[in-house]
Design goal:
The structure is a single chain. This protein is mainly beta. It folds into 2 domains: about 200 residues, Clam (outer membrane lipoprotein receptor (LolB), chain A); about 325 residues, Jelly Rolls (Sandwich), CATH 2.60.120.230. The strands form 6 sheets. Strands 7-8-9-10-11-1-2-3-4-5-6-12 form a 12-stranded mixed sheet, with helices on both faces. The longest helix has 16 residues. The radius of gyration is 30 Å and the shape is elongated. Pfam families: N-glycanase_C, N-glycanase_N, PNGase_F-II_N. It comes from Niabella yanshanensis. InterPro entries: Cu2_ascorb_mOase-like_C, PHM/PNGase_F_dom_sf, PngaseF_C, PngaseF_N, PngaseF_N_sf.
């Protein structure tokens, strides 16, 4: 018996030498068979599916599909080759027309535990026996034949049974052979003249995964802190003493990429407290924008007043101004990473808090455009917070809304530059915005994000308050936004205060947020909206001020539709 190290070395050498001349190293002979498999779910077969194609003989089995084999599939294209001499699997993937990667899996076949079962049936005239295995809680049944001098299967599973003509997963997903014939083999055309780069198995899979979507980097190792002396990156603008960072980002055409996600990771770089954060996009569709306020001062933004004597800058849409659009509302935990030295028995603190948000509703604002995207974290700490942020664009999904209308955003992003806190809900009128649609919007939806603040016992952060929204004087939304799952995120919060009750501050329920989480928007169906003037009003029974303590509500609202 050859040592395993020698066998792997031989396989690696074969992989390199064969692909150096642009060939998948499948060695065809006079007993090579081609088998095609059709899939069905719950007995229903899609008429235009991309069928699995298998070439197999006594020495090897190659697994591909019709489109990839013909050169008609979309990248990435993968071919799997099973070598029966050592029961190893070689994997080749074209990431694009000139970039091929490869790996060797020496355990995928050898480690299979398959149980032979009672049962017989005929498939395509061949006598078949039954076998079964369980993979990740999925029951896989095989029907295989020994009537032919070859083995093979439509996946890596069951390769050593015989020729598998049918695979059934969990009783409802079926791959059935619909043709078995002797044939000559030719290499897939797209793999011609491309030498692969060899990876270990985990890195190979990671390369394929990352190739399935487009990543647009927003911020990398970006400090958000309260300081005028921080290092300034050439493509990043800092405002409000460094608590806001803004970047102009160029997006490609989204084409068939219909799904968009925003990722952000945060670590404390000195600040120990839970803070309000937001990732926002600045609309520039009107005469004035939020960027003007960032550059020229908060006093230059349009003012909203409701009779309580305060002036709220830049929070409501006007004829000439659109508020910043929230892509993500997030809350930092208490001192993650920076304060992980605080020890509690049984607590193994996380190093970073990840936030991930579906922002497909705003895809039309990004498609092939240059846009201003910013991040704010409210803090007065010189160390502050460190973030990384990126947007990923994925193929598939439903068509995103074509129209986006920003109505209000009371989160005082320019808090550290003097923007007023959102205390306008101390009056029954709350926040009222009058706006005009230049054209009708069908299937309109209001995306409404709300969180209550006031961090003492009677503050609205800890007191449930009903939010009511009226659209054209009709109530369309009425509920109490509240989170009771904050204790789930305790391991993000090493610096959270601990009380005599045995609770931590980060455990406490709050008005629709928790330290270390994203706050999702409420989705309110509006139906079809006509062109012309409309009114939207938000009412919240805001708690009364107690000495220097006061409550505030950060609410944002955007209409999307077609």
């Amino acid at each position: 018996m050859k040592p395993l190290r020698l066998i792997i070395g031989i396989v690696t050498f074969t992989l390199y030498t064969s692909l150096a001349v642009g060939q998948i190293p499948f060695q065809s002979d006079n007993n090579t068979y081609r088998i095609t498999y059709t899939s069905s779910v719950n007995g229903k077969t899609s008429p235009n599916q991309n069928r699995i194609v298998v070439f197999t003989n006594a020495r090897q089995t190659l697994i591909t599909n019709e489109k990839d084999f013909k050169g008609e599939g979309k990248y990435p294209l993968e071919v799997s080759l099973v070598n029966r001499t050592n029961l190893s699997q070689q994997l080749y993937t074209l990431l694009d027309h000139a970039n091929c990667i490869a790996t060797i899996d020496s355990t995928a076949i050898k480690n299979q535990q398959i149980e032979l079962q009672e049962g017989n049936k005929k498939i395509l005239g061949y006598n078949c026996k039954k076998a079964k295995t369980v993979v990740n809680s999925n029951t896989i049944e095989f029907w295989y034949t020994s009537d032919l001098p070859v083995k093979g299967a439509p996946t890596v599973l069951g390769q050593n049974l015989g020729l598998v003509l049918e695979m059934i997963r969990n009783g409802n997903f079926v791959m059935s052979a619909d043709e078995v014939k002797k044939t000559a083999y030719t290499n897939p055309s797209r793999f011609a003249s491309i030498k692969p780069r060899l990876f270990d198995l985990l890195s190979y899979r990671d390369e394929i995964w990352r190739n399935r979507f487009t990543t647009i980097e927003l911020f990398k190792d970006q400090l958000i802190n309260f300081s005028d002396t921080a290092t300034v990156k050439p493509d990043v603008m800092r405002f409000a003493n460094g608590t806001i960072v803004v970047k102009k980002v160029k997006f490609p055409s989204l084409a068939d990429a219909k799904t968009v996600f925003l990722d952000l990771q945060e670590q404390s770089n000195g600040d120990a407290y839970d803070r309000t954060g937001t990732v926002f996009l600045i609309p520039v569709d009107k005469k004035q924008s939020f960027l003007d306020g960032l550059k020229n001062g908060v006093s230059t933004l349009p003012v909203f007043e409701n009779g309580n004597g305060k002036k709220y800058q830049g929070v409501a849409a006007t004829v000439d101004y659109s508020p910043a659009i929230e892509l993500m509302r997030f809350f930092t935990p208490f001192g993650i990473k920076q304060y992980n030295h605080i020890q509690l028995k049984g607590k193994d603190w996380h190093q970073v808090v990840p936030y991930r948000q579906d922002i497909t509703a705003y895809a039309s604002l990004l498609d092939g455009k240059e846009v201003y995207i910013g991040v704010f974290i409210g803090n007065y700490d010189k160390g502050g917070h460190k973030i990384n942020a990126a947007i990923t664009v994925h193929r598939g999904g439903d068509e995103p809304p074509k129209k986006v209308v920003s109505l209000f955003n009371t989160l005082n992003i320019m808090e550290m530059a003097g923007q007023e806190y959102a205390t306008m809900f101390d009056k029954p009128e709350g926040l009222t915005v009058q706006f005009e649609l230049n054209e009708a919007i069908s299937s309109a939806v209001l995306r409404y994000t709300t969180t209550g603040h006031g961090g003492w016992g009677n503050g609205d952060e800890f007191v449930p308050k009903e939010n009511t929204i009226l659209f054209d004087e009709k109530t369309i939304f009425k509920m109490v936004p509240w989170r009771e799952d904050c204790g789930s995120y305790r391991l993000f919060n090493p610096a959270s205060g601990n009380f005599a009750t045995g609770l931590s501050s980060s455990d406490l329920s709050r008005s629709n947020w928790c330290p270390g989480t994203v706050t999702n928007p409420f989705v309110v169906q509006l139906g079809n909206l006509s062109a012309g003037k409309h009114t939207i009003q938000v009412r919240i029974p805001q708690g009364a001020r107690e000495g220097s303590s006061f409550s505030a509500w950060n609410v944002s609202g955007v209409i999307v539709g077609d």
